[in-house]
Amino acid sequence: MKAMILAAGRGERMRPLTDHTPKPLLRVAGKALIEYGLENLAKAGFTEIVVNVAYLGRQIKEHCGNGSRWRLSIQYADEGEQALETAGGIANALPLLGDKPFLVVNADVLSDYPLASLREKSVDLAHLVLIDNPPHHSLGDFCLNENGLVGVNGGPKLTFSGMGVYHPDLFAGVRAGQALKLRPVLEQAMQNGRVGGEYFDGSWLDIGTPARLREVSENRGFFHTADMSGQ
To answer: 147 lies in which domain range?
Structure first.
């Protein structure tokens, strides 16, 4: 299974830190954010990685190179200066991802979720990892029913972790070069009962603002209590 790291975002909420540095290269506990994702994917047995880039993307390419230092093979899906949002960015990268289900993770999420387990999941159009709602996203995103299907309604809301496995067919309706968020694409598939999911209660951090970046950088305990290996 191939894997994709979403790294093309402008990082508006991180300004002014992202005025000259792309968000995936901001440092947490002495290491660039994207490096945690690459290390976790490598330890979980993934070898072929696609990274989408846009704003200041050259810096990411220069920092990560071909991935050999992590024993990975990295290819880049360059969206130019204007990012295509999540669904548009994934659709743009499909020629590099192939015709089988693939894993997608956000560059700004740190977690000890066992990524290797996703290689064995049965996937229709999508399989999402859901978590408890963090303070900054208290209303949540989707519901997970007892049959393992994910929908917009039908129970308490959970938050989408930014980790999911997708079949290329999920993006069949996305036009080439179209900027499109992921949620409407998922919701359409949910209406047809084609999105599965699971609940994860382990360590998870979304490094979305300077305050959260500062908090996790100062709280080194997270890196001691959470196994960041992704196995």
So the answer is: 3-204
Number of alpha carbons in the 13 Å side-chain half-sphere of residue 179: 10
CATH number for the domain harbouring residue 152: 3.90.550.10
| H-run or E-run covering 66 | none
What are 14-70's pLDDT values in tens digits?
787 778 899 999 988 889 999 999 999 999 999 999 999 998 999 999 999 999 999
Q: Under 8 Å CB-to-CB from 215, ≥6 apart: which residues?
A: none
DSSP 131-180: EPPPGGGTT-SBEE-TTSBEESSSS--BEEEEEEEE-GGGGTTPPTT---
